[in-house]
Specification:
The complex is a heterodimer of chains A (about 240) and B (about 325). Chain A is an all-alpha fold and about 240 residues long. Chain A has two domains: about 50 residues, no CATH class; about 160 residues. Chain A has eleven helices and no strands. The C terminus of chain A is likely disordered. In chain B, helix 5 runs antiparallel to helix 6 and helix 12 runs antiparallel to helix 15. The chains are: A mainly alpha (about 240), B mainly alpha (about 325).
Chain lengths: ~240, ~325
Amino acid sequence: MNYWPLLGIALVVLGFALRLNPMLVVTAAAIATGLLAGMDPVAVISIFGKAFNDNRIIAIVWVVLPVIGLLERHGLQQQAARVIRRLRRATTGRLLVLYLLYRQVTAAIGLHSTAGHPQTVRPLVAPMALAAAEKEHGPLDEETSERVKAMSAGTDNVGLFFGEDIFFAIGSIVLIQQTLVTYGYSLAPLELALWAIPSAIVAFLIHGTRLLLLDRSLARRAPSTSFAGPPPRSGEEPS
Amino acid sequence: MITLHWLYTLAGAMFAAFALLSAIDRSNPKRFGNAAFWGLMALSLLAGDYIGNFGNGLLVLGLAGLAGFGFIGRSHPRTTTEPERERWSERLGNRLFLPALIIPATALIGTLIYNYTPVGSFGWIEPKRETYMFLAVGVLLALATIFAWLRPPAIAPLQEGRRLIDAIGWAAVLPQMLAALGVLFAAAGVGEIIGYATQSVIPAGSVFLTVVVFGIGMALFTMIMGNAFAAFPVMAAAIGVPLLVRLYGGDPAVVGAVGMLAGFCGTLMTPMAANFNIVPAALLELKNQYGVIKAQIPTAIPLLIANILILYFGAFM
């Protein structure tokens, strides 16, 4: 067996670890993998180009940007934060648990493309999570706000991945079914979808717990500025 | 029939406008690099089917070169200031959410009506792509609403869109590049090699350890390929079907379904899944481009362990 194509994987790992520009890393790895597998350069570039062209559907989601940008221009993020400041019981963790549940449930009924990072996380979820943290704990330092934003994005991913497979007409279920059929196992999509439910529940419990623990660690981070009311407009830096 | 090409044309026109506006933006010292980069994206979306595979390959090399050698820079199109935005939000209040909700609501209601009423049987839309169509319809409806209501300058949606796409930068194209890399990995036989290597580390006779290797193998191979779809057929061929199902008599539905989900735990931990892990870091303007992955690892690892246990008890008990 020709093990040389594995060098392409090593290139990817090395490139990402050294934080080289991923566009270059991916291109170099693709070309190296093809050449090491014995293809000629023109064939390698053609396969790469065809695959890029076949995956253009990935680029379609960017058509939401003009709408999101226009709404940001008119204060959407500020309004999202304002709403959260008014809700007395809202905390970052509770808010994200609700979003996790929403994302899992909508994905489970086949509506996985209705939310996502450009459509919902940047304009709504992340500003709300940040506002909730500021309301509870005063102004955030950069490290903390990075963490809250990263958890907002992570919550979207966990909700999507561990919700979508409960919907039987999704790509991954079709793929499992098609793969197993070639070995003579004919399964109903519903049978596969049912077995996604235990993992979905565990995902909710694990990630939900982490989100509620996030509230606690936010409180520990800024104990001196922790209070129930809205944050002072010109508050001191948190310790 | 409305096909994906309608959407490619819409997105292509948008990227073409970004390219033009980039070219005339004198405030950005790298304006021609940005113009070339978004121009190539527009070319791909508008004419990708007419320039041949090799032509597309050269286009991708162009994108990678522009991004990789620092020819693109972030622009700062004129927008409203923070105090202006506070005033807008005070004035408009919660009505601001309505246009934002038009997009998901249109996608949701459109998809439901198309799939669960006789409307779908007319075959107006390319099968399985209806949600994307309704997403685009939602975008157009939201734009129309905002224009009727707030009357922004005509160029504003494109300039605001360009502000966001420049904040994301090359990360907007990376997911497509990684999908293409996965295809090349497959063509070079990486899957067979990995499958062969995984088989060789399995201890004979232990059902539990075989399940463990299958689950961890799914996660690791998914991390390498960037998505579980590429990993599943390989791991199913190497371990799932011959060992877990045939030799040990496991339930194929559990092995398939939960095996895939073990792979999804890998997706949470890899920069190769750029659209989930790298793009949001750019979108949320995080300093650490691996910040989202860092936040997900403590969920992913216990969840992987849980999936391995679910697979073991579900398939064999």
